[in-house]
Inverse folding.
């Protein structure tokens, strides 16, 4: 074995008795120095009692980050290898979750030194053995509890490792709790392979009463939830629910539009600068529910398209992702865009190329609400510079259109055209003022309805109905309602 300049050995999950013969022999070889990543492991402590070893625990105390620590470990191992055969030993398997080993191997490859890896038993082997989980029969993914992916996708069973501190356990439990119910079973696994190992399945809400350590992991077997759970549930309903089975793309259109309006209505309840400012979690709960209803419509249409082999929901998501990347060359490419106006111009240019437009005015749906469509048309024109630079001329344009309307008020056909021009100019003004004209008009409608309800209340308190009041009296009631802040 002495011709092996660097041996990398996995110490397994517990004591030296679990090490394969080859790995144990190289650790005990006379004349070979042994460097341990840490002494905080049963096999490391046993080995330290049998022979002289060096550990890297001191590097964890001085390193500002894990990257710095792993770099320092690699330097220490390679420096020792310059003076004779070395064994670098790490807890668990040397090839599962060992970033320090990856760094050592990356550096040693450039030196030409002979290297052999003795992987050792992984904690994953014991997780599968203790829980009966078959990673082939049941999809499994392995996650780092200190660096969970964002977003966290609940599409398979999860083994969450590196849950080594109480705050990490709390953070993991909180992240799981965003999607999973409190009573979801979670298996707490600690010190696997040791006589005092812990394997306990408890409700998610009870995880906090366990104390984690360097060899703690969690197993979450839950069925697909979140995005994937929604997709799968919709497919089940499509097969088994009489109502879902009879739906077509066209029958769902009215539901799609209704859910879009209900979502917009809930968003209108948020403060104008949301998500900035004070957070109203009650309103956000309503927005969350309405967004879910709207999302279901997207998933449902994708489910129907999947049945005929047109596309699936993942293809919809990927198509949109690619579109976002393509239309943001200032983020994902070399294009420079220092302001929002440049971003919009680039977006419209790229979109026009994609859709092979003959005109700027192409592909703006005529079925849009008129105010929304007017705003869209104006923004499309602005993308090529056809717009007033400020709001002042727009005020003048509104006065001009109002005069033209007054001049033809007796001609209904002409008045309709002039009124349309006036409204179009008002939308233009809203855009220049940074106001959403649709929301502004909706707000005016809300205020009007609230004031009428208040007037009805005042009239009822007087034992009358609004129809019994003169116009002058109604104006007085209106001002009274308005004075209340409505």
């Amino acid at each position: 074995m002495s011709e092996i300049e660097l041996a990398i050995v996995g110490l397994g999950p517990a004591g030296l008795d679990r090490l394969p013969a080859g790995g144990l022999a190289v650790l005990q070889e006379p004349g070979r120095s042994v460097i341990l990543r840490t002494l905080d492991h049963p096999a490391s402590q046993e080995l330290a009692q049998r022979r002289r070893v060096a550990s890297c625990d001191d590097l964890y105390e001085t390193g500002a980050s894990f990257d710095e620590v792993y770099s320092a470990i690699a330097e220490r191992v390679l420096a020792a290898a310059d003076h004779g055969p070395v064994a670098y030993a790490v807890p668990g398997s040397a090839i599962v979750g060992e970033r320090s080993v990856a760094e050592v191997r990356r550096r040693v490859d450039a030196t030409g030194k002979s290297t052999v890896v003795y992987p050792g038993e992984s904690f994953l082997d014991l997780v599968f053995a203790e829980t009966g989980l078959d990673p082939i029969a049941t999809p499994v993914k392995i996650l780092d509890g200190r660096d969970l992916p964002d977003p966290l996708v609940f599409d398979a069973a999860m083994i969450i490792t590196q849950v080594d501190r109480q705050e990490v356990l709390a953070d993991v439990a909180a992240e799981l709790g965003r999607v999973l119910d409190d009573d979801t079973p979670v298996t707490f696994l600690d010190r696997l392979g040791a006589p005092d190992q812990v394997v306990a399945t408890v409700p998610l809400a009870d995880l906090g009463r366990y104390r984690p350590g360097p060899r703690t992991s969690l197993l979450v077997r839950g069925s697909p939830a979140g995005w994937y759970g929604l997709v799968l549930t919709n497919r089940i309903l499509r097969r088994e629910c009489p109502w879902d089975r009879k739906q077509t793309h066209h029958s769902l259109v009215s539901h799609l539009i209704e859910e879009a309006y209900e979502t917009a209505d809930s968003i209108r309840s948020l403060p104008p600068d949301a998500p900035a400012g004070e957070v109203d979690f009650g309103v956000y709960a309503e927005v969350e529910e309405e967004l879910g209803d709207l999302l279901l419509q997207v998933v449902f249409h994708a489910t129907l398209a999947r049945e005929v082999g047109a596309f699936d929901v993942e293809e919809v998501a990927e198509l949109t992702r690619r579109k976002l990347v393509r239309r943001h060359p200032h983020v994902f490419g070399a294009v420079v865009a220092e302001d929002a106006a440049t971003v919009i111009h680039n977006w419209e240019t790229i979109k026009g190329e994609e859709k092979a437009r003959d005109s700027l005015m192409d592909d703006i749906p005529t079925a849009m609400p008129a105010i929304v469509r007017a705003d869209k048309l104006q923004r499309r024109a602005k993308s090529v510079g056809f717009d007033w630079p400020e709001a002042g001329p727009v005020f003048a344009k509104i006065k001009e259109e109002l005069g033209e309307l007054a001049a033809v008020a007796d001609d209904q056909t002409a008045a309709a055209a002039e009124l349309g021009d006036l409204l179009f100019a008002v939308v233009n003004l809203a855009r220049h003022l940074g106001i959403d004209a649709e929301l502004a008009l909706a707000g005016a409608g809300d205020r009007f309805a609230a004031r009428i309800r208040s007037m009805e209340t005042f009239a009822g308190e007087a034992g009358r109905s609004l129809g019994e009041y003169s116009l002058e009296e109604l104006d007085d009631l209106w001002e009274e309602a308005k004075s209340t802040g409505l």
The first helix runs from residue 21 to 28. Strands lie at 6-10, 33-36, 54-55, 86-90, 115-118, 140-144, 157-161, 185-190, 198-203, 216-220. The chain has four domains: 6-121, 125-223, 227-326, 439-483.
